[in-house]
Amino acid sequence: MNVLDGLEYTEKHEWLKLESDLATIGISDFAQNSLGDLVFVQLPKVGSKIEKGESCGTLESVKAAEDLYSPISGEVVEINESVVSDPSLLNKDAYGSWLIKLKNVDLSGREGLMDSQKYRDYISELS
Predict the structure, then answer these.
(1) Whole domain around residue 67: which residue ranges?
(2) Does 99 map to a domain?
(3) How far is CA 27 from the centre of its chain?
(4) 110 alpha carbon, distance to own chain's centre
(5) How far apart are CA 105 and CA 49, in angstroms?
(6) Where are the beta strands (DSSP E) in 28-124?
(7) Does residue 74 lie in a domain region?
(8) Which band of pLDDT confidence, cut at 50, 70 and 90, is reported for residue 122?
């Protein structure tokens, strides 16, 4: 499984990238591989406030439906409409196909997130 350095990860396989006051959220390569061919993505509305650990979307594949959980609290400023229109983009490039961008993030909520090496160790234990 591909794990990108420079991102933070959750135990539920979401990734977080912080750039100044903007947080970008997506799912890991492990998550997309586990789900299989994605056929539907539902994301929150722009302007929504989401809390860390709260369900903020749904990913459906031919195998299963899973909730998307936010790794951090903030306000939704953008969703990836391309992925909503074509969920298979996540299967092609999980890290290039982000899902949600947040502003006004609560940086204290990063506690408990894993760096890339800890996440590699975590998913190797699951295999």
Answers:
(1) 8-107+114-126
(2) yes
(3) 4
(4) 14
(5) 10
(6) 38-42, 49-50, 55-61, 65-69, 74-79, 100-103
(7) yes
(8) very high
| CA 35 centroid distance within chain | 13
Count structural domains, the chain: 1
Please report whether residue 69 resides in a domain: yes
CA distance 89 to 94: 7
> Residue 99, Cβ neighbours under 10 Å: how many?
25
Question: What is the per-residue pLDDT across 101-113, written as a single tens digit (0 to 9) for each?
Answer: 999 999 888 889 9
Residue at 31 is within a domain:
yes
Mean pLDDT of 15-44: 95
Task: Report helix, strand or coil for 60.
Answer: strand
CATH of the domain at 76: 2.40.50.100
